[in-house]
Structures are given as structure tokens and as C-alpha cells.
Amino acid sequence: MSIIHEKSPKHCAEKQRTKILNKSKKKLLVCASTFFLCILCLILLLCFILHPSNPHFSLTQVDINHVDITSPSPFLNSSINLTLLSTNPNKGIGIYYDGFLLHASYNSHAMTPDTSVPPFFQDHQQPNLLNASLLGNHHHVDLSLVAEKLPLGFTATGSLRWKVGNWISRRYGFSVDCETVLPLGRIDSILLTSKQPTVCSTSF
């Protein structure tokens, strides 16, 4: 004797409604996945076509207003003003600089603490002159300032974002290294100026 399962019309209707909801969820999921995939492909396509080039930096002027070595301990007091030229070489891409830190060094020894450069936006193919005053007070540095030349290094570290239309990328860390050599004799309290442009290296 076989068992007959009878289902009421209400039960059939609920089962049919569940099937419709499941189909709707699947369609919604497929549509959402397709949408986000298209957005991702568009971003990748823009990055591939535009291929942003790294910004260019050059050191255009360095003014050393004062360098003093305390005796007998090798502590250094210094006052340096510099002008840094930043250029965006891209035709259709803007750059948001979220600020960066800049310091001076001699033979890999820090002469000044980090100085903050305010954030700014740089439109495509736009140059910007950045001025910074670096003050170092009582910094312990192993210097031999009796040479005829003073090799200086300037390092900037920070983050930037690319802007393409209304789309803005995530933050990317970058580092800029500049080097210049100033002629000098014995240093006590001096004023040295270098207006020889120096191309800096930029790394991400």
C-alpha cells in the first residue's frame, strides 16, 4: 500500500513564492557582480591607457643662512632655505599631494628634523614651486667642515593620489632624493647660495 502525500494549495503557493525569491536574489547577485566587474575593468582600462608617469622634482635653489658647530661636542645648528620644483608630466591626470616631510642631511647624517610641506593639488602638466625652511638645532652630527665642498642631501617622503576625471585613486607612498654640492672654505657663520638646478630621483 503506497503512501499518498497531499499538499494543500497554500503549501504549493509558498513553495512557488520561495522559488521566485531565490531566482530574484540570483538575478540581483549576477547584476551586482556584473556592474562591479565592469567598473573594475573600466578603472584598469583607464590605468592602462593613461599610465600615469611619476612626477618630476628638481632642486632649483638652496640658501644656507647659517651653519654653526658647537665645541667641543660635534653638535650642529643650521638654517637652510630651499626651493623645490615639482612638475606633473601627465596630460590627463591630476595629482593630490597629501603633504610630505622634508629634511636635509650631510653624508647620510641628518642636519635638520623633518619639516612638513602643506598638501596641495597639481593639475596635469602643471609646475609648482615649493619653498621650505629647514632649521636644525643642536643635532649630533659627525662632520668634517674643513673641506672645500659641502655635499648636501635633501629627502622628501609622503603620499599622493592620482585624479582621473572624478575618480581618485588610493594613496601611494613616494620618496624624493636630491643631492647638491656647495663650495666652501672654513665654516663658522656663512651665507651660501646655489642656483644650479639639480634633478632629483623619485621612487614609489
TrEMBL record:
This is Late embryogenesis abundant protein LEA-2 subgroup domain-containing protein. Residues 84-178 form the Late embryogenesis abundant protein LEA-2 subgroup domain. It is a single-pass membrane protein. GO terms for cellular component: plasma membrane; plasmodesma. Keywords: Membrane, Transmembrane, Transmembrane helix. Pfam families: LEA_2 (PF03168). It comes from Salvia splendens (Scarlet sage). Signal peptide: none annotated. Its main location: membrane. InterPro entries: LEA_2, NDR1-like. It is found in: Membrane. The chain crosses the membrane at residues 28-51. One of its GO terms (biological process) is defense response to other organism.
